[in-house]
Specification:
single chain; 151 residues; mainly alpha; rod-shaped
């Protein structure tokens, strides 16, 4: 017999008064014509593969989240450098210095995180530095965008 649904497993559990894993184990032994030890070994491999997949899924999710923040930071760095070059002279000295400092901070934070050794803390720091630069440079970016559209 091959178990086709969870309902079948639960029905057999009730009928045979056995735990879930035992019902699945017995079905595997019958279906594949293997010994109990062979079936247990296969179950262990399957369980390990599922555990590994869950572990790597979390790592992949963290990597993806970091990459998104990293891409935003890199794009903002380029946009702000260009905007400072094109329109920076139109800002007062204090505002320009504040943007330059926030830009330097973001560049430093971006460069110090090493590929393969990035943590959630690195992502948070990069995100915070990105938001700080966005807040400082929003006016500059809008001004520069307006200028380049007008040309």
């Amino acid at each position: 017999m091959s178990l086709d649904s969870m309902k079948e497993i639960f029905d057999l559990m009730a009928e045979k008064n056995k735990p879930f894993w035992e019902v699945v184990l017995e079905d595997d032994m019958e279906t594949r014509q293997v010994t109990r030890n062979q079936s247990m070994a296969k179950m262990l491999l399957t369980w390990q593969a599922m555990a590994d997949a869950a572990q790597y899924a979390a790592q992949d999710q963290e990597y993806k989240a970091y990459q998104e923040v990293s891409n935003q930071a890199e794009e903002l760095i380029v946009r702000c450098k260009n905007a400072l070059t094109v329109c920076g002279k139109e800002l007062d000295k204090g505002e320009r210095k504040q943007i330059q400092n926030a830009l330097a901070n973001l560049e430093h934070t971006f460069k110090k995180s090493k590929p393969g050794k990035r943590s959630a803390g690195d992502r948070a720091g990069l995100s915070q530095a990105t938001e700080q630069l966005k807040a400082c440079a929003g006016g500059l970016l809008a001004l520069c965008e307006q200028r380049t559209k007008g040309e």
